[in-house]
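User: Sequence in, structure out. Go.
Assistant: Echoing your sequence, followed by the structure tokens.
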Amino acid sequence: MFTSRRLLFTVAGAGACLLLASGAPAAPGDTFTAASTPSHVQPSKPATYTLTLTNTSSNTVPSSQADEATITAPEGFAFVDDSATASASASGACAASQWEPNINEDRIRLRDSDGEGNTRLCPGATLTIVFAATAPAVEDTFDWEVSLSRGDEEEDAFTRTGPPPTVEVDGTPPTPTIVQKPLDPSSSSSASFAFMVSETAATVCKIDSGEFLPCNSPVGYANLGDGLHTFAVRAADAAGNTGEASHTWTIDTRPPTAAVASGPAALTNSRSAIFTFSADEPTSFACQLDGGSFQACTSPAGYAGLGDGAHTFAVRPTDALGNSGAASSYAWTIDATAPETTLGSAPRSGTTAVAATFTFSASEAASFECKLDDASFAPCTSPRSFAALSRSGHSFEVRAIDTAG
């Protein structure tokens, strides 16, 4: 309810008059402050706003008690009908009360509830107005136009001090950029990420199928398993616009496994050896012979001029991430020295006997082959006997063949 005024004139004589007023204008120096939330909204979307008008007058006279306020929407904003509520807090002679809002196109007018005085806004009290409005499509910063007064005349208005209540219409989402991330692929079970955001925003992060949790740059993760992983960071600005960035990479901490596919026989008389080998994933190889140093090699790998005795070949795989597997080895023995054959007993030269027996041996474990005269060598054992020989000259030969051939 507005405060009314009546002017009564009584003529009491020349140049004399009496002026009576039923209300009093706001006292000089009456002030108020204004604030609003939210500070940022999205274009063309409705939002609920809260404006607070605080009577900061230092006067204690009744005329410093406000009973009317107005809120004018910035250009392009549209109030939602019947969405406004208003309440005044208690202070001094004024009790806490509800004020009556009236939305008329781009303006909300508010009055104290009964006009009896104790529902006004006394110095130190705050009027809180809650309403809904739809923002314009254009992005910009806008001011709410507000007033607080005692009555509805210009001379009754309080003076606002401090900045006006503002709202920024912002439809541009923040852009997060990941500036530090693990290599793809990676041999580490840990990962660290650093990121930047194009504007002030709250950030949340997640790894794989986990939930988004508040985070700050840098953020790290440990004990990640082998396989594919995805990190994501999401930024939300004050208007509720969101932007997201992600990085996907593969962790491989498993070492490769190598196997020797072929090599010389376990016992051979060859002083050369050729080995073929492979691994269960793409790798490079290093080879070692008889405990020497590992040297880069490819399959097949060959060696020559090897001495008699036991030998060991080993090959070690290393994948592209630097994971090295255990060496796979192959052992064999070279015996390239022929056994010495010794003839033991034999018939004497010029004998009249038509039968003959020979004994023989070798310098190492061996098998034997024997031949008589022009016959071919045939397997034999010691002693070797012959009968019904012709009475003529004869020749006997025996040779030893060791296990290496």
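User: And one key feature?
Assistant: The two ends are 125 Å apart (CA to CA).
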